[in-house]
C-alpha cells in the first residue's frame, strides 16, 4: 500500500427490504487479526499522505440510540457541532436525535416515541436557513406512515406533517431546501405510491408527484440548475434502479436505467461535483457483483462506471450502501458495508476516488471501532470527514460516530449557492472571529460575524460567479462550492438607436458575462466593464426587443425594450 494509516479508537466503555450483511461475533477475532496485518503493511510502506481514523463515540443503545441506517447523513449546525439521528434505541427504543461535537462529546437531544412525532428516523438531518434542522421518521405519526419534522438545536421537535397513504409514506431521506426556501423530499413506502413533496417551514404540504421510481431511499439533492436529483433502489426499465431528475414543480425524468452490468440497487443519494457531474454508488451489480461507483451528467448523458467492486475480493470491500461526499480536495470519499468474510475487509472499508476514476482503498473497518457503514459521509468545515456506522462499539451491533482526517484544509460552507446583489448569505466555518474581508469572486462584500462558526454576508453588486473567500486572522478560507450571482439589469442607455449604437447596460452580477443579445440576435462586440456595467454594440440584423445578458449565474432580460431605428 502507498498510504499510511493511524487508527484511533475509544476505550471500551427493524428494517424493510434489508439487504445488509451481518458479521457474527465469531468473526470478530478474524477481523481484528486481519486489521493488525493491514496496519503493519500500511506502516511499512512509504506514506503519501496522513490519514487518521478516530472512533469518536460508541452508541449506547439503551440511552443514546443505535444502529443508524442509510442514508443517516449528519448535518453541521451554526454552532459547529454535528447533528444526526439513530433509527433505533434510546429510552423508548424507537430512535433518537443527537448532537456531537467535532471532538466527540455526545448529547442525546430527543427520544422518539409512538406518539404523533413518529419514530425510526433514518435519514439524518438537514440544516435550514432558519437555523433549525429538518428530518423525517419512517414510521409513526397520525397514520403510522411516518412524519416530517422540524427540530431546534436544543432538540425541541415540531411535527410538520403526518403521511396518510395516498400522499405516500415511510420517508427515508431528510428533506432538502430548494432555491425558493421550501423543503423537498420523497417517500418510500414498500408498496407505493412513491411520491415527492414540498413543504414550508411552517408545515404547508404539497404533493408534487406520484411518479417517483421505487424506492428513493437516499432522498434528493439540489443541483446547480435548481432541479433535484435522486436515485431509486429498483424501478426503471430493468427494475434494477435509476438516477432521476425532478423539477421543483414535480416533473420527473429518468436519466439512467441500470442494467446490472453497470450497477444495480441504489440506496444512497448522488452528489454533484464542482465539475457539474453527478457521482454515486450502487450496492450491487457490475462485473464483480459487488456494486460500482459511477458518474453521470445532469442531462443523463456521459454515464461512466468509475470503479467496480469485487464481491470475492480478499483485499477490498464491496456492497456500498453509502453515498459519496465531494470533499474540498476535489476527490470523493465513501464506504463499503462489507467484504469477503474470510478476506481482509469483512466489516467494510473507507475509500477515495478522483473524478478521473483513480481509486484508493484507504482502510478497513476493524468491527470493534466501526463496521457495516451504510451512512453517506459529510465533510465538516474543519476539513475532516464524519459519519456513523451501523455496527461496532463494545456491544458490536450498536454502531459508532467516527471521523476521518485526511489532512484537508478548512473551508467555509454556504447555506445557499445562488442570489442577487443585496441578498444575505449565511456562511458556516471555523475561526471566523476577527474576519477582515469577504469576497464573492472579485466583489467585496459587507458582512457580520455572529460567532466563531457562523456569519452572514451581503452579496455585492460587483460579485461574480466564483468561490467565496473569507479572510480570517488564521488565513483565507475558500468555499467548497461555487457561488452563482444571479444577474440583474436595471437600465439600458440609450433606449434606441440604429445598428452600431453602443449601449451601456447597468445592473448587478454582470461580471463574467458570456453572451449579450438584442432581441434574438447575439452581440458580437461587447465589453464587461465591471460586475455592474457592460457596453455592447447593437449587432447587424437586430430588431426591436429586450436586451438579455447571460452569465454563469443565469440569463436576465431587461424590463425596457431597446428600439432599433433605421
What is the SS-derived class? Answer: mainly beta
Alpha-carbon distance between the termini? 74 Å
- Largest sheet, strands/sense/barrel: 8 strands, mixed
Task: State the shape.
Answer: globular
Low-confidence stretches: 1-48
Helical fraction: under 10%
Strand arrangement, major sheet:
32-34-37-36-35-38-39-33
Count every helix, treating DSSP H or I runs of 4 or more residues as helices.
1
Global mean pLDDT: 92
Radius of gyration: 25 Å
Number of strands: 48
Name the beta content range. Answer: 35-45%
Describe the protein.
It is a single chain. With 566 residues, the chain is mainly β. The chain is built from one helix and 48 strands. It has an eight-stranded mixed β-sheet, with no helix packed on it. The chain has a five-stranded mixed β-sheet with strand order 1-2-31-30-29, with no helix packed on it.
Quick summary:
This protein is mainly β.
Topology of this protein?
Blueprint (H helix, E strand, L loop, with lengths): L5 E3 L19 H17 L7 E7 L16 E2 L5 E5 L9 E5 L5 E6 L14 E2 L5 E5 L9 E5 L5 E6 L13 E2 L5 E4 L9 E4 L5 E5 L10 E3 L5 E5 L9 E5 L5 E6 L13 E2 L5 E5 L6 E8 L7 E7 L6 E2 L6 E2 L4 E5 L2 E2 L9 E6 L4 E6 L13 E2 L5 E4 L11 E6 L7 E2 L3 E2 L4 E5 L8 E4 L2 E9 L2 E5 L7 E7 L2 E11 L2 E6 L2 E2 L4 E7 L6 E4 L2 E2 L3 E5 L2 E5 L7 E7 L2 E11 L2
Parallel strand pairs: 1-2, 33-39, 41-48
Antiparallel strand pairs: 2-31, 3-4, 4-5, 5-6, 7-8, 8-9, 9-10, 11-12, 12-13, 13-14, 15-16, 16-17, 17-18, 19-20, 20-21, 21-22, 23-26, 24-25, 25-27, 27-28, 29-30, 30-31, 32-34, 34-37, 35-36, 35-38, 36-37, 38-39, 40-42, 42-46, 43-44, 43-47, 45-46, 47-48
